[in-house]
Amino acid sequence: MTTPNPGPVAPPPRLLMGPGPITVDPRVLQAMSTQLVGQFDPWMTATMNEVMDLYRGVFATTNDQTFLVDGTSRAGIEAALVSLIEPGDRVLVPVFGRFGHLLAEIAGRCGAQVHTLEVPWGEVVEPDRVADAIRTVRPRVLAVVQGDTSTTMCQPLADLGALCAEHDVLFYCDATASLGGNAFRTDEWGLDAVTAGLQKCLGGPSGSAPVTLSPKAVAVIDARRHVEAGIREAGDEPRGRIIASNYFDLAMVMDYWGPRRLNHHTEATSMLYAARECARLLLAEGLDAVVARHTLHGQAMLEGVRGLGLGVFGDVAHKMTNVVAVEIPAALGAAGGDAVRGRMLTDFGIEIGTSFGPLHGRVWRIGTMGYNARRDAVLGTLAALEQCLRTTGVPVPAGGGVEAALGVYPEEER
Amino acid sequence: MTTPNPGPVAPPPRLLMGPGPITVDPRVLQAMSTQLVGQFDPWMTATMNEVMDLYRGVFATTNDQTFLVDGTSRAGIEAALVSLIEPGDRVLVPVFGRFGHLLAEIAGRCGAQVHTLEVPWGEVVEPDRVADAIRTVRPRVLAVVQGDTSTTMCQPLADLGALCAEHDVLFYCDATASLGGNAFRTDEWGLDAVTAGLQKCLGGPSGSAPVTLSPKAVAVIDARRHVEAGIREAGDEPRGRIIASNYFDLAMVMDYWGPRRLNHHTEATSMLYAARECARLLLAEGLDAVVARHTLHGQAMLEGVRGLGLGVFGDVAHKMTNVVAVEIPAALGAAGGDAVRGRMLTDFGIEIGTSFGPLHGRVWRIGTMGYNARRDAVLGTLAALEQCLRTTGVPVPAGGGVEAALGVYPEEER
């Protein structure tokens, strides 16, 4: 180390109103400060089972195989894809933003023949187009993002499951950005594999990836099961082509979470505590109630930014509830857009998001999710944004944002 | 969810004296309960730089590229190997326990031609044998575990770096179980890549993997750099054969930790806070002082179990300071060994470890590491073990364990 030893971690206070990660629910932080037990302690294995059950609730599934991958949401994506895809498999990826590109890229690294179906940013892919592509491409896997924060769009998924089942396609969804804030039904929609993260509508920190697998997905993965040399027993003969990753080999991860408790990684217990608390709080509030809360506060933020005279990017009818892409006034330009974001952070301690790729410099992304899908967070952000726009020289109606947002809330709460 | 919503997480109190994970330092738990900031907040990027600098201290290196992989220690291993190894490369792995087998297995999944050099469990591999194998195999990578908890052995590494440099071999070490508790010198020993975890001598939870890479390792990895489609800019033309994993692509992870801050995963900030606090506390105490503390309390535990009349497995001269493999009295058998462990947990809240593979049912593994490399933890464990042995019917000298351990401590502390 070349610098003096610093003190304990002491971040500045922030209200995180970007596209995620967002401010963590204090009850989740509290859970993470809980002391560990051993990884095969009876209390620990019972708690792992409890976590599986809680996430069955969150994913709206009865899938036995519902567990955590120890890594960020991207780790969950890669674990699902590398375990489901065999090199040479055709994989169909509808792309309507950056995270569709990511799925295509990861599938490519898994050795898939990747077929993408692209639409301009700000749109979703018509389910009929996906259906047609399933019929012509005949993929092994359909990999779709539900909510892509890069564009704020929420892809309709409900009608694709039956077609996937009919054509023996494994239906995978990355629900990281949308789960909890938008309707999501694993079983009803016929999904075979879903992965998520904690850092969006679940109100937790990044670092744990909940996963659920249908019996069909489990059968595909188990057909490639290779128990590690040091712990292999009779009946554990290797099957099929080995999965390219050890860490993301979901056959092994299932053996660790399952009754055999075969050692694999050392569970990241503090992140498991966080994941447990996220799911527990969500289910205590109620799956539909949490979506309704995101819908309400997301609508208030949408009307609020419009009340400030700002445009909203994209097909609003297909917008996720939990994030809005706000057009940066043309007069400001990209640098002015960053200046407003800078003032929000410096003067008010509020973070709003910048953008990637074709939207860079064109929109801010403002989230209302998880712990921050709250009235005071919405109104405080709009009040601060009004001030920062004014300071930066953008004409803005006094009180226009807060007033429009208040109009969305029930009469007795205005 | 099929069961009622449970309450907040509330584990039973445990003293974790197994081979890891161990009881987390309360100051690390405190750090993890700290609220998040945004991932590109100036405070956050400054804190990431601070973490890099702290781990340079922990690894005893000046390597620029010293950072965290977001996953358990196994994630760190896979990230290093999949990024360093190209399919077809020869990889040499000395195997003296389970984690050597793991390195060989991961290297195999990376497409390497793996050459192992095995010795019986309880021994280390003579450095001369490794040197000979380097000359005959001419590997691209030498991958070695420093401390293998499955056997408690600590492999000598200091003399291999020069030979690796001479033969253009990349020298990788998995220091998960040993780092902090045993001397480790990345630069002095000529290592090109080292990975670790927090859950052993660093006193943290599993879930973050510190990594350091020499300039030579960085050059090898950068020669296979592929910036993601959505965020690629001029000059980012893909180079070399793409790394098989996106999540573990260290060229991308370096771009995220480096000055360009190219988005990759969303940093697991709570785990980063934990990793920061682990390193901060270790360096505040002093690298050599922490090793000396592990040496002292490890020696006390070793003499303590001998004082109870128990045998110690393996080549004690090459034992890690922080874990001892205690022979289960033959009269007890494997079931009796588990009964003693069960009583330790139930009657005293103390966890000691079982074993894998050839040592299963033959030894208990008792750790003295991180926060638990402490006099009261050592003496309490020995006192409890004496009682549990007696209850299970093993003749044991009254007070023999504690007395022998006390004999190791300085006179004024007895």
In short:
The structure is a homodimer. Chain A is α/β, with parallel strands linked by helices.
The CATH H-level homologous superfamily of the largest domain in chain A: Type I PLP-dependent aspartate aminotransferase-like (Major domain)
Number of distinct beta strands of chain A: 13
CATH topology of the largest domain in chain A: Aspartate Aminotransferase, domain 2
CATH architecture of the largest domain in chain A: 3-Layer(aba) Sandwich
**Count of DSSP-assigned helices of chain A:** 13
Main sheet: strand order of chain A: 2-10-9-8-5-3-4
Biggest interface, chains and residue tallies: A-B, 97 and 97 residues
Largest sheet properties of chain A: 7 strands, mixed
Element order of chain A: H for helix, E for strand: EHHEHEHEHEEEHEEEHHHHEHEEHH
Q: How far apart are the first and last residues' alpha carbons of chain A, in Å?
A: 54 Å
Radius of gyration of chain A: 22 Å
| Quaternary assembly | homodimer
Helix and strand content put the structural class of chain A at alpha/beta
Q: Tally the structural domains of chain A.
A: 2
- The helix content of chain A, as a percent range, equals 25-40%
* Low-pLDDT sequence parts of chain A: none
Mean pLDDT of chain A: 96
User: At the first level of CATH, what is the class of the largest domain in chain A?
Assistant: Alpha Beta
